[in-house]
Structure formats: structure tokens, C-alpha cells
Amino acid sequence: MGTTNRNTTSQWPESALAAAAKAFDMLVAPPATLVVDGTLVGHGLPERAIPLDELRELLLARNCPPPTRDAAWQLLIGYARSWGPAWVVGAVGMALPGLARMAGRLSAGHPQLVEDIEAELLAGFLEGLRHADLSGPAPYVRLCWMGWRRALTVRGGDIAAELPELPDPASHTPARPYGHPDLILARAVTTGWITGEQAELISATRLDRELIDQIAARRGVAASVLRMRRRRGELALVEAMRRGDLDPARPTRKRPRRGSQPPPHQRQAPRSDQGKRSTGARCGTAWTY
User: Fold this and answer.
1) What pLDDT digit, counting tens, does each position of 58-76 carry?
2) What CA–CA distances, in Å, run from 78 to 53, 70, 86, 99, 259?
3) Among 49, 206, 233, 269, which has the highest number of CB atoms less than 10 A from its own CB?
4) Alpha carbon distances (Å) from 266 to 173, 187, 254, 262
5) C-alpha pair distances (Å), 58 with each of 53, 65, 81, 289
6) CA distances from 28 to 7, 206, 226 (A)
7) Which residues make beta-bridge pairs with 50?
8) Among 180, 192, 195, which residue's Cα sits nearest to residue 230?
9) Domain boundaries, the chain
10) 51 DSSP β-pair partners
11) DSSP labels for 257-278?
């Protein structure tokens, strides 16, 4: 019986997130509990050593101010990058509630993809944890989004309509008709309004705040070329949203060919003063996020 118990406890779950949860539980189990000094975080956290599982509960509380979450996560990110694997596992464990919500949303209706989705979700999170510029607000939310974008590749063009809410006010999905910015980009690529490269540029520079000059240097192209490509993609996105072609509540419509008529519900009778309206009045619109 003793041998059976030892074999059972030594087995690791096949699921990436379940394995991460087990590793985190081991890290916060007494007597060698992984802790953060609350005095280094400040922002109202207890001024004592806080075990990571307790810290996670404090940060997930609805009354926890965003600056407190950001300060704690900046400290965790620094530890994960400087102090070794234990803190990497600790950071993943801290993010598991949000990652689990994402995995559930992405896996809905696709049980055969669960393991691949979880693996890519975790890989994207870890890549950002190691290398991304996470200065600025909501580093935890941005890390989870990096995992979400990578996991989307497993689903291909069949994606969920909205990003699940994360335990952070900055992460809530915007109201319909459009949804989370990454999903707008995915729908725009699927419907042919923008290219995959344009979606990458917009996501990296507008959402992840990566400098376009850094991307240009990495790719060996002129920054001005990438700015022009991004600009064309953004103009196409604005036009697609104006037409309603990226609204998930409507049937998917491919980008119309040049010179084609707009959808019937958007056609308007000619107006006598149409020629007097400015270009901005005819074409201008604002991003919804």
C-alpha cells in the first residue's frame, strides 16, 4: 500500500495547467513556503512576509486597487527573471485563475484540443514573462493576453467571440459589438480586411507597447515601411468597423472588392448636401478600445 501511495503522489498531471497548479502548491506548502515581503510592495498590503497563495487571494479580491496588483506583479516579474525557476513557477501559479478561465473559453467545444491549448497558453505566458517589456500598468493582464494570442493558433480561425474576464479591472472585455482588441484583429484577418503581418504589428505596438523600431531592426527592414503597413491596416480596421463587418453578432462577411456596394442595411438615399460634407464627416470614426 505504501508503494502505491508513493507512485500515485509522484505522478504529474498531463495537463499543463494542472501540473503548474501542483508545482505551485508544493512551493507554498510549509515549512519552506515561498513568500513576498509586503513592505517591498506597499500600497496597503500587510507589512510582513506573505505566502504566495495568500498574496494571490489578496490580489484577486474585488477591493484590491489596480496599483497594488501592478506593484506586486512587477516585483514577481523581477524575481522570476533574476531568482530562478521557483519564482517562475510562483508567477505562473499566481496567474492560474486567469489562465484557467482563458483555457476554458478556448477549449469549449474542442475537448480534443485541451492539452495543446493549455500548453500554448502557458508557453505564451512564459515567453512574455522572460522577455517582454512589462513596464507600465497591468503587467499581469498583458502576460495573460500574450498567452491567449499564442493559444489562439491552436484554434485557427475558429475562435471564441469574447475574451473571458480576468481578475483585474483593466482586463474586462469591452462591451459588444466588437469585444477584445485581439479578437477584432483575428476577425479582421479571417475576413481579409488586414493581413496577419498587419495584425501582428498593431498588436505588438499598440497593445504590447513594443517600439516599431525594435521590430524593424529585428526583421531587417526600415521602420518607415512597417509604419506604413501598420497605418494601412489601421485604416482598414476603421473601415471594417464602420461597415459592421467585424461584429461577431452578424454573419461573417469577407472584405468587399473595390467598387462593390455596401451592405443593404448601410445604404443611404442620396442627400442634396452630400457633396458639402467634409471628408472627416464621411469617413471619420473612432476606435472602440
Assistant:
1) 998 878 888 899 999 999 9
2) 18, 12, 13, 20, 53
3) 233
4) 27, 20, 16, 6
5) 9, 10, 23, 29
6) 22, 37, 46
7) 36
8) 195
9) 13-125
10) 35
11) PTTPPPPGGG-----TTGGGS-
